[in-house]
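Honest question from a wet-lab person: if I give you the sequences of every part of a complex, can you actually get the arrangement of the whole thing, not just the pieces? Trying it with mine:
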Amino acid sequence: MEQTHKAIQNSIREKARELLSSKKVDVVVGFGEGTLPLRATPIFIRSPEEVDRLIWNSYCENNLATYLYKLSQFKVGLVVKGCDARSVVALSREKRFKPDQLYLIGVPCQRMVDRRKVKKAVKGEILRVSEQRDEITVEGEDFKKVLKRDDFLYPSCQVCIHRTPAKADVLVADPVEESSLVEIHPEIEAFEKKSPEERWRYFEKEAGRCIRCYACREACPMCYCTECFVDSSNPEWIDKGLSPSDIEFFHIVRAYHQSGRCSGCGACERACPMEIKLTYLTQKLNQDVKELFGFETGVDPDAPPPLSTYDIEDRQEFIK
Amino acid sequence: MLRTLELRFLKDEDAQAFHFVPGQFCELSLLGKGEAPFGIASSPTENGSVKFTINKAGVVTTALHHIEEGSEVGIRGPLGNGYPIDLFQGKNVLVIGGGFAFTTLRSLVTYFLHPENRNKVKDITVIYGARTPGLLLYKEELAEWAKRSDIKLVVTVDQGDKDWKGKVGLVPNVLEEAAPAAENTYAVICGPPIMIKFTFPKLMALRFPNERIYTSLEKRMKCGIGKCGRCNIGHLYVCKDGPVFSYAQLEKLPKDY
Amino acid sequence: MKLKLDKKNFIPFLQSLMAEYDLFAPVQLADGVSVYKKIDQAEKVDLSISNAQKPAKEIFFPQSETMFRYEKAGKESRITSTEDIKRNRILLGARPCDIQAFSLIDQVFAGKDYTDTYYVNKRKATTIIGMGCDHPLSTCFCTSLNGGPFHREGSDLFLIDLGESYLVELLTEKGMAFQKNKFFEEANEKEISLAKGIEGKATEKVKASIPVNGIEKKLDQMMESPFWDRVQKKCLGCRVCTYLCPTCHCFDIMDEARTNKGRRVRNWDSCLSSLYSQETSGHNPRPTNRERTRQRLTHKFNYFPKNFDRIACVGCGRCTLYCPAHFDIRQTIKEIQEGGDK
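Yes, you can. This is the full assembly:
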C-alpha cells in the first residue's frame, strides 16, 4: 500500500508542478501532512516550489470540493478521489462554477482508513502509524498492534464502486477494479429491515447527540446555500436550541436536500464531533432516487438532476 | 419606514430610577418576538416619556411598527456610554447627522437647547441631511429649531421634491460651505457609512483633531451589557464601552466595524 | 487531608450523593462520545474517558437555557423567572483544564459590572470534584497555560485514580463538608506515594511547551497581516472548535413563542457563523472566513488578555482533536509567534 501511495504522491506533485509552472491553475488544493497520526490536512499550494508539501495516504479523507465556493475567482487544480469527483460533477450540473475553472487531478482511491475505528481497536493514545502492504501497524506508549487494513475502512468506502474519478482531467494512477468490499449495502439493508418504529428509534438515538454545530453541513460540498433554512429568522422554520423535534427536523430536511445530490463521500459523518451516523439517511434516499429515476449522483455528467427536471415518463402511480 | 414610539413607564419608581445621558440606548422587548437595541431619541430634559425611532427591518422592528397604543413594551436600560457632554462644556458643538442616524443626535441637541443647559456650551451648529425630504426625521423639532437664534441649523436633502424649498446638497459639501471653525469645537457625526466616508475627510481638512470628533457606532448587539460577545471591536464592546467613540479611540482599534 | 474511596464502593457512594444533590458527571452517549450530564442512574457515570467532547462548562452555562417564561393575557403579560436553583449540585470527574476554564468564564459572567445570575447561581450551588489526568494526550498543552494534569485550583475535592481506589483530597471548605462521608477511608502511605508517582509521571508527559509568552504583542502588529488569508484557507467555518471549547462563551438570545405563552432562551453561538455580526442594514463587518477566523484567534490570544490579563485558552486540545480539517492550534500559535511570515 505504501508503494502505491508513494507513487500516487509523486504523480500528484509532478502534475501540480506542471500546472502551477505553466500557470494553467492559480492554486492546487490537495492534502498535506497532518501533525497527528492517522490524519492529513487540506492544503492550498500556489507556487511550484511548494508542491513537495503535497502528500497522499490513507487519511486523505476530506472532500476537497467543499472548498470550491471560496475559490470562485481562481482557476483551481483539485485533487479528487472517486467520491469527490462525483460531487464536482453534481456541482457542475448545478452551475456552481465555470466549465474551464477546474482542473481535476484524479486519484483512483484505495479506500480511506477509518481513524475512529482504529482508535477504538486499541487502549491508549496512538502515537505512530505505518502501513505495509495491507496491514496497519499502530504504536502507543505501551502497545503495538497490527491491524488488517480492510477491516478498518470507512463504511462509505467499503461499499464504493466508483473509486476511479470518471471525469478527471488526469489520472495519477491506473484505474482500480471497481467492486464493493461487502456484498450489499449493509447500512441500507439494516435500515430497510427495521420496522417504522425501529427506524424512528434508531434515528432518534443518533440525532439525539446532535449539538447543532453544523460541521456536517460545512463539510458537505453540496451544502452551499448562502442562508441555510436553519438560520432563517423570517420565516423561522426551527428554533436554535436543542429541542429534539428541531434537531430531527434539521437532520431529515438536510438529508432530503441531498437526494440525488449526495455522492456518499461520508465527509459529514467524519466531521461530526458526536459521531452521529448520517450516511444511512442519504444513501437510502439515493437508492430511492436510483429506483425511481435511474439516476446516480455524479456518474453521468450529462444526466439532468432528476428532482429539478420534469420528464413525461416520470412515475405517477403515487398520485391518487 | 420609520415610526417614533413614545413610551411611558408603568411604574412610577421605574420612571424615577431611569436617568440617562444623550447617546445611550435601550433594549426594547416584545415578548414572543424578541429584543433589539434602539438609541434614545428623547432628551433627559423631556420628562414623562421616552422616545425611540424604529426603522422597520426585521422581526422585532416590524412587530414594533404594528403595536397599538396601550401595548406593553419591555425595556432594559439605559445602556452604553452616551455622548461626552462634560467634555463639551464651554466649547462649541458641531452636530452632523445623516438619515436615520439622527435619533440620538435629536436627544443631544434637545438637551443642550434646554434653558438649564444652553449656557453649558457656546455655539451649536447642526447639519442634517437625508436622501429625500420624506426621509427627514423630527420635522416638527427641526421647524422649531430653525426659528431659534441660539442654534445654527442647516437641513439639506440629496434630492428635493416639488414642495421642497430648502437646501439641496450632500452633507459633506454642505459642511464644507458652512465651514465652522475647528478651534474649541467638538464634532459629533452620525450617519450611514457612505456619508461618514466622505464627510470625515472634510472635517480633517477643517483641522478637526481626532480627539474632538465623536461618533456613535452601529453593531449587531444582543445582551447590551458586554456578555454575549458579539459586538466587540478589538477588546472593547460597542454596547458597554460605546456606542460613542472618538476617532482617536477608533484609530487604535481594528477596523472591525 | 488525604482520604480514599474504594472502587467497590463507587456506585453506593454516587447513590449517596444523588440522594442529597443533583449529580453531574461524564456519561457515554455512544462508543467514544461522552458529555457531562445530570445523572439519573449511578451506573451510567463513566470516569474512564480522557475528556468528554462537550466541555464541563455546560453545567454552569448550558447550551440552551431558558431565561424566563412569559404568559400573555390581552395587552398585559406575566413573567416568571427561571434563575433559581432548586437543589445543590455536584460536578464529578471534571478535568483540571475544564475547571481552569470556569475561573476564566467567571471573569466575564461573574464580573463586577452586571452579574449573570443564571451562571452565578449554578456556580455557587455546585461542589466540584475534580479528577487528575493520569494519561494526558499528546494534544494536551495545559502546562503551557498555567495549568497542568493535576492542577487543583478550582476543585473542592480532587480524585486521583490509583487503580483499585481513588485518592480523595479535600481542598476547600465545600470539600471539607464531605470529611465524614461514610465511604471515605483514610489513605495509607503507600497509596499517597502511589498518587504522587502518577502525578509526577503525568505532569512530565505534558512537557510539550507551546510558546505563548508575548503572543498578545505579536498579534497587535498583525491585524492586517496576510497571515489571516493563509490561516483561514482550510477552515470550513464549521464551528466545532467553538462549541467544544471550554473557554468560549458567546451566546445568542431569542424568544420562542407558542400562541400566548413562551420563553426567552439563550443558546451558544459562535463568532465563526456568518450571521454572527450581520447588521440589519445588510453590512457585515466580518463578511468572509478570513475576518471570522481572525476574530476567533485574536479574541483568545489578544482581546481577552487585554481585558482580563490571561489567555482565553486552557490547552485542552479539543479543537485540534475534532477539527474536520485538522487545524492544529499549537501550530497556529507557533506561526503567530514567528510573525506569521511563513
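Two things worth pointing out. The radius of gyration of chain A is 20 Å. Residues 130 and 136 of chain A are 6 Å apart (CA to CA).
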